[in-house]
Amino acid sequence: MARSAIAFPALLLACFVLLELGFAEHIPEPAPGYDSSLELCIKKMTEECGIQTFQYIFHRGPEITDACCDVLVKFGHPCHSEFIEVVLSTDKFASHEAEILRKSTAAWKRCRAIVEKRAI
User: Fold this and answer.
1) Helices (DSSP H) in the chain: which residue ranges?
2) Structural domain spans, the chain
3) Are 56 and 107 a contacting pair, CB within 8 Å?
4) Contact 53, 107 (CB under 8 A)
5) pTM for this structure?
6) Across the chain, what does the average pLDDT equal?
7) What residues contact 38, with CB distance under 8 A and at least 6 apart?
8) Residue 1 contacts by C-beta under 8 Å, 6 or more apart in sequence?
9) Model confidence over 104-115: pLDDT tens digits?
10) How much is the pLDDT for 119?
11) Which of 4, 38, 82, 117 is at a distance of 20 to 30 A from 29, taking alpha carbons?
Protein backbone atom coordinates (compact mmCIF):
# COMPACT_ATOMS: atom_id res chain seq x y z
CA MET A 1 0.00 0.00 0.00
CA ALA A 2 2.75 2.46 0.94
CA ARG A 3 4.56 1.63 -2.27
CA SER A 4 1.47 2.50 -4.35
CA ALA A 5 0.91 5.67 -2.36
CA ILE A 6 4.43 6.79 -3.22
CA ALA A 7 4.60 5.48 -6.80
CA PHE A 8 1.58 7.34 -8.20
CA PRO A 9 2.74 10.79 -7.02
CA ALA A 10 6.21 9.92 -8.33
CA LEU A 11 4.70 9.03 -11.72
CA LEU A 12 2.75 12.28 -11.81
CA LEU A 13 5.86 14.23 -10.81
CA ALA A 14 7.83 12.51 -13.58
CA CYS A 15 5.18 13.58 -16.10
CA PHE A 16 5.42 17.19 -14.96
CA VAL A 17 9.23 17.08 -15.14
CA LEU A 18 9.11 15.75 -18.71
CA LEU A 19 6.73 18.53 -19.66
CA GLU A 20 8.98 21.15 -18.10
CA LEU A 21 11.98 19.81 -20.03
CA GLY A 22 10.40 20.85 -23.29
CA PHE A 23 7.84 18.27 -24.32
CA ALA A 24 5.20 21.00 -24.18
CA GLU A 25 5.64 24.53 -25.47
CA HIS A 26 3.66 26.22 -22.74
CA ILE A 27 2.18 25.05 -19.49
CA PRO A 28 -0.15 27.54 -17.83
CA GLU A 29 0.83 28.76 -14.38
CA PRO A 30 -1.38 27.10 -11.77
CA ALA A 31 -3.73 29.21 -9.68
CA PRO A 32 -2.87 29.75 -6.00
CA GLY A 33 -3.80 26.65 -4.01
CA TYR A 34 -3.80 24.51 -7.15
CA ASP A 35 -0.75 22.47 -6.14
CA SER A 36 -2.14 21.62 -2.72
CA SER A 37 -5.49 20.72 -4.28
CA LEU A 38 -3.80 18.38 -6.75
CA GLU A 39 -1.68 16.84 -3.99
CA LEU A 40 -4.81 16.04 -1.98
CA CYS A 41 -6.34 14.44 -5.06
CA ILE A 42 -3.27 12.32 -5.76
CA LYS A 43 -3.44 10.82 -2.27
CA LYS A 44 -6.90 9.40 -3.08
CA MET A 45 -5.81 7.45 -6.19
CA THR A 46 -3.86 4.19 -6.34
CA GLU A 47 -1.07 3.74 -8.87
CA GLU A 48 -2.81 0.80 -10.57
CA CYS A 49 -6.14 2.59 -10.95
CA GLY A 50 -4.50 5.87 -11.95
CA ILE A 51 -2.68 4.12 -14.78
CA GLN A 52 -5.78 2.15 -15.78
CA THR A 53 -7.93 5.29 -15.86
CA PHE A 54 -5.29 7.24 -17.79
CA GLN A 55 -4.88 4.44 -20.35
CA TYR A 56 -8.64 4.15 -20.90
CA ILE A 57 -9.26 7.87 -21.31
CA PHE A 58 -6.11 8.99 -23.13
CA HIS A 59 -4.82 5.89 -24.96
CA ARG A 60 -7.85 3.76 -25.87
CA GLY A 61 -7.04 1.22 -23.19
CA PRO A 62 -9.48 -1.39 -21.86
CA GLU A 63 -12.46 -0.36 -19.75
CA ILE A 64 -11.82 0.55 -16.15
CA THR A 65 -12.37 -2.43 -13.84
CA ASP A 66 -15.11 -2.39 -11.23
CA ALA A 67 -12.47 -2.32 -8.48
CA CYS A 68 -10.87 0.77 -10.01
CA CYS A 69 -14.31 2.31 -10.48
CA ASP A 70 -14.61 2.19 -6.68
CA VAL A 71 -11.30 4.04 -6.39
CA LEU A 72 -12.25 6.56 -9.10
CA VAL A 73 -15.55 7.41 -7.40
CA LYS A 74 -13.76 7.82 -4.05
CA PHE A 75 -11.22 10.01 -5.92
CA GLY A 76 -14.20 12.28 -6.56
CA HIS A 77 -15.51 14.16 -9.55
CA PRO A 78 -13.65 17.42 -8.75
CA CYS A 79 -10.32 15.54 -8.62
CA HIS A 80 -11.16 13.58 -11.77
CA SER A 81 -12.01 16.80 -13.62
CA GLU A 82 -8.87 18.54 -12.37
CA PHE A 83 -6.68 15.65 -13.53
CA ILE A 84 -8.31 15.71 -16.99
CA GLU A 85 -7.80 19.49 -17.24
CA VAL A 86 -4.11 19.20 -16.31
CA VAL A 87 -3.46 16.57 -18.97
CA LEU A 88 -5.49 18.45 -21.59
CA SER A 89 -3.38 21.55 -20.95
CA THR A 90 -0.48 19.78 -22.69
CA ASP A 91 -0.04 20.06 -26.44
CA LYS A 92 0.09 16.28 -26.83
CA PHE A 93 -3.56 15.80 -25.88
CA ALA A 94 -5.13 19.20 -26.64
CA SER A 95 -5.94 18.24 -30.24
CA HIS A 96 -8.06 15.32 -28.99
CA GLU A 97 -9.97 17.33 -26.39
CA ALA A 98 -13.50 16.46 -27.56
CA GLU A 99 -12.84 12.71 -27.61
CA ILE A 100 -11.02 12.81 -24.26
CA LEU A 101 -13.81 14.79 -22.59
CA ARG A 102 -16.38 12.35 -24.00
CA LYS A 103 -14.44 9.33 -22.68
CA SER A 104 -13.82 11.05 -19.36
CA THR A 105 -17.54 11.75 -18.90
CA ALA A 106 -18.50 8.23 -19.99
CA ALA A 107 -15.95 6.66 -17.62
CA TRP A 108 -17.15 8.76 -14.70
CA LYS A 109 -20.85 8.01 -15.34
CA ARG A 110 -20.19 4.27 -15.82
CA CYS A 111 -18.10 4.02 -12.65
CA ARG A 112 -20.56 6.03 -10.59
CA ALA A 113 -23.42 3.79 -11.80
CA ILE A 114 -21.45 0.64 -10.89
CA VAL A 115 -20.70 1.93 -7.40
CA GLU A 116 -24.27 3.18 -6.82
CA LYS A 117 -25.76 -0.12 -8.02
CA ARG A 118 -23.69 -2.04 -5.46
CA ALA A 119 -24.76 0.35 -2.70
CA ILE A 120 -28.45 -0.47 -3.18
Assistant:
1) 2-18, 34-42, 47-59, 66-75, 77-88, 91-94, 97-119
2) 2-119
3) yes
4) yes
5) 0.69
6) 79
7) 30, 82, 83, 86
8) none
9) 999 999 999 999
10) 81
11) 4
